[in-house]
Write a structure and sequence with these properties.
With about 400 residues, this protein is an alpha/beta fold. The protein has two domains: about 25-215 and about 360-405, Quinone Oxidoreductase, Chain A, domain 1; about 220-350, Rossmann fold, CATH 3.40.50.720. The protein is about 25% helix and about 25% strand. The protein contains 13 helices and 17 strands. It has helices at about 25-30, 40-50, 100-110, 160, 210, 220-230, 245-255, 270-275, 290-295, 315, 340-345, 355-370, 385-390, and strands spanning about 60-70, 75-85, 90-100, 125-130, 145, 150, 170-175, 190-195, 200, 235-240, 260-265, 280-285, 300-305, 320-325, 350, 375-380, 400-405. The strands form four sheets. Strands 3, 4, 5, 8, 9, 16 and 17 form a seven-stranded mixed β-sheet that branches. The chain has a six-stranded parallel β-sheet with strand order 12-11-10-13-14-15, covered by helices on one side. Helix 7 links the parallel strand 10 (about 235-240) and strand 11 (about 260-265). Helix 6 packs across helix 7 (about 245-255). The longest helix has 14 residues, at about 355-370. It is globular and about 65 Å long. The relative contact order is 0.15. Keywords: Metal-binding, Oxidoreductase, Zinc. GO terms for molecular function: cinnamyl-alcohol dehydrogenase activity; zinc ion binding. InterPro entries: ADH-like_C, ADH-like_N, ADH_Zn_CS, CAD-like, ER, GroES-like_sf, NAD(P)-bd_dom_sf. This is Enoyl reductase (ER) domain-containing protein.
């Protein structure tokens, strides 16, 4: 899943203009990417936590091994680093599996200009609980749990108080960010992680760990807007634009909700897979003018997963009255459309960003209840650089998942 906008109102991080980037665009890019500095409120919180001894002792850090990128080449290799000791609110996790998301590719290659190295990526993490802090009651040693894109938030703002912490302006990303102890966060392509219990989810019994990994980003990214915008009722007609990791989840979830699903793609290449393997009802090639015209005013919503610049007007024309075009791809260039395309059908262009912990747990139960499965390719860690090369070429059906437990990370 790609990183999406969460606020336009953050203060600027510095006074310099990047070449060719206007201030609003730069402001957005900063909001999309990870912070370099620890904000003052977080520093104060750190001091308070140290004074109250509710954080793990920094003098008793443990080490772990992950695979890290060292520069914008994006090549990953073994990297040993420190983890804080398990604090009272922490869960110490042995990583079993971790999915590869397209946003990992953006980050390791510094596509948005805010990457910090060394960087251990990975935010679709499934593993076993090795240890819990004294305040942890929801998780027990030996349980299988998951960790997604976030490992921290302020807990005080309106989004946090409303259980939609993914929209907190002070959220802390699972990697390429700075934790409250002032140290960089590192992700799931590693032997172990320590995560505050609030950002850990239980994996329902009966779901296999490797199948669950992509759900912790791609799955909830689709489920959240369908739930929030009231698009879960049976009989709706939905479109899935782009058939990649998030798109294939969109087809599966929408079909499980009882929707008529149209996959929209730029070519015929994925037609057989969409219709025969994923169960889509219709396949629409966006360059086929006649077919697009025939499909006008037919969809209640479109999940737009395309991560590069593209015209919106052809897809707006497919929406019914009050239809919604829901953007999910990270695109750092302006998207254009003529306003009558929206006005004359009271249509909406909106966006959505991953999902909350609450939504993630709800989605996992939904996945189990419906008996769904992900279409994944499981690889060992020594294949990860090749996997990223293939992902960049869209050569995966439909999600790589790294078998961390079965890999030798220090070689």
């Amino acid at each position: 899943m790609a990183l999406l906008l969460h606020t336009w109102m953050n203060p600027r991080h510095d006074g310099a203009e990047e070449e060719g980037v206007t201030y609003p665009t730069k402001q957005l890019l900063h909001s999309l990417t990870y912070r370099r500095k620890v904000p003052r409120p977080i520093v104060n919180l750190l001091k308070e936590k140290k004074e109250n001894k509710i954080m793990g002792s920094l003098e008793e850090e443990r080490t772990t091994v992950g695979w890290a990128a060292r520069d914008p080449s994006g090549i990953l290799s073994p990297y040993t680093y420190n983890l804080r000791n398990t604090g009272p609110d922490d869960v110490y996790i042995k990583v079993y599996y971790c999915g590869i998301c397209h946003s990992d590719l953006h980050q390791i290659k510094n596509d948005l200009g805010m990457s910090n190295y060394p960087m251990v990526p990975g935010h679709e993490v499934v593993g076993e609980v090795l240890e819990v802090g004294s305040n942890v009651s929801r998780f027990k040693v030996g349980e299988v749990v998951g960790v997604g894109l976030l490992v921290g938030c302020c807990k005080n703002c309106r989004p946090c108080q409303s259980d939609i912490e993914q929209y907190c302006s002070k959220k802390i990303w699972s990697y390429n960010d700075v934790y409250i102890d002032g140290k960089p966060t590192q992700g799931g392509f590693a032997e172990t992680m320590i995560v505050e219990q609030k950002f850990v989810v239980k994996i329902p019994e009966g779901l296999t760990p490797e199948q669950v990994a992509p759900l912790l980003c791609a799955g909830v990214t689709v489920y959240s807007p369908l739930s929030h915008f009231g698009l879960k009722e049976r009989g709706l007609r939905g479109g899935i634009l782009g058939l990649g990791g998030v798109g294939h989840m969109g087809v599966k979830i929408a079909k499980a909700l009882g929707h008529h699903v149209t996959v929209i793609s730029s070519s015929e290449k994925k037609k057989e897979e969409a219709l025969e393997h994923l169960g889509a009802d219709q396949y629409l090639v966006s360059s086929d003018t006649t077919a697009m015209q025939e499909a006008a005013d037919s969809l209640d919503y479109i999940i737009d997963t395309v991560p590069v610049g593209h015209p919106l007007e052809p897809y707006l024309s497919l929406l019914k009255l009050d239809g919604k075009l829901i953007l999910m791809g990270v695109i750092n260039t302006p998207l254009q459309f003529v306003s009558p395309m929206v006005m004359l059908g009271r249509k909406s262009i909106t966006g959505s960003f991953i999902g909350s912990i609450k939504e993630t747990e709800e989605m996992l139960e939904f996945w189990k209840e419906k008996g769904l499965s992900s279409m994944i390719e499981v690889v060992n860690i020594d294949y990860i650089n090749k996997a990223f090369e293939r992902l960049e070429k869209n050569d995966v059906r439909y999600r790589f998942v790294v078998d961390v437990k079965g890999s030798k990370l220090d070689q």
